């Protein structure tokens, strides 16, 4: 399904006294087809870098990513675009929701980016899945943090991705609301692969089918 082999990534700082940081140091692991996998580690451990590499948002200096038997080294630019646009659904800590659009429009936007027509029935079905039924016409500024995060999940889901990647999805939420978001993601992980970057070990222990812990760019 998804495998990373010997991934390395170094970030070079700018300026005379800049520090070079080895964000990933020869990381290899295999992910299952479904389930909830947590990437844990302190700030700077490499967990978000690993997520960004797998998601095609950043490229490794060396190593390879195998997606459904195909090596990312053989990907063209358009292969990477379609991988990001159709295969993966991203959920970010800051929600990345457009305040000038209502909830329905925010979710439909993901379809438009794929060149697909608006599908109101599909949007309503997804809103129901994430417990936001009937809120499609509301503006984001009328929603709670937990509801906004569930809109972000709905927007990722409307593309019917095979993998959902969430970077600190509970980072801006209190623990009760964070639990609701993880309940939603856990339900989705029965049919999809959900990869979560988090610093919250408690949530990882409760919800994770597997925990991959990183430190200084290595899996420990």
Can you describe this structure?
There is one protein chain. The protein has 220 residues and is an alpha/beta fold. Helices cover 34% and strands 27% of the residues. It is built from seven helices and ten strands. The chain has helices spanning 47-54, 77-87, 103-113, 120-129, 145-157, 175-188, 201-207; strands at residues 2-12, 20-31, 35-40, 62-67, 70-71, 88-91, 163-167, 193-198, 210-215, 218-219. Strands 6-7-8-3-9-10 form a six-stranded mixed sheet, sandwiched between helices. A hairpin with a 2-residue loop joins strand 4 and strand 5 (70-71). The longest helix has 14 residues, at 175-188.
Layout of helices and strands:
Blueprint lengths: L1 E11 L7 E12 L3 E6 L6 H8 L7 E6 L2 E2 L5 H11 E4 L11 H11 L6 H10 L15 H13 L5 E5 L7 H14 L4 E6 L2 H7 L2 E6 L2 E2 L1
Strand content: 25-35%
Cα distance spanning the termini: 23 Å
The major β-sheet equals: 6 strands, mixed
Which quaternary structure do these chains form?
single chain
Q: How many runs of DSSP E, i.e. beta strands?
A: 10
Radius of gyration: 18 Å
Features:
single chain, 220 residues, alpha/beta, six-stranded mixed beta sheet, four-stranded antiparallel beta sheet, 10 strands, globular
């Amino acid at each position: 399904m998804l495998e990373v082999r010997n991934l390395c990534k170094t970030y070079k700082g700018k300026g005379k006294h800049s520090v070079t940081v080895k964000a990933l140091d020869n990381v290899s692991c295999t992910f299952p087809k479904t389930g909830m996998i947590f990437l844990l580690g302190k700030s700077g451990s490499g967990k978000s870098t690993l997520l960004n590499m797998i998601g095609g948002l950043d490229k490794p200096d060396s190593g390879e990513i195998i997606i459904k038997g195909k090596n990312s080294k053989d990907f063209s630019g358009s292969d990477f675009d379609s991988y990001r646009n159709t295969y993966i659904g991203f959920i970010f800590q800051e929600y990345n929701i457009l305040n000038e659009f209502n909830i329905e429009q925010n979710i439909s936007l993901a379809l438009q980016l794929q060149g697909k027509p608006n599908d109101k029935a599909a949007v309503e079905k997804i809103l129901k899945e994430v417990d936001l039924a009937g809120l499609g016409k509301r503006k984001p500024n009328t929603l709670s943090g937990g509801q906004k995060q569930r809109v972000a999940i709905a927007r990722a889901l409307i593309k019917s991705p095979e993998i959902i990647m969430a970077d600190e999805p509970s980072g801006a939420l209190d623990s009760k609301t964070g639990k609701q978001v993880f309940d939603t993601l856990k339900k989705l992980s029965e049919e999809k692969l959900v990869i979560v970057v988090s610093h919250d070990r408690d949530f990882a222990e409760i919800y994770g089918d597997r925990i991959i812990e990183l430190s200084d760019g290595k899996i420990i």
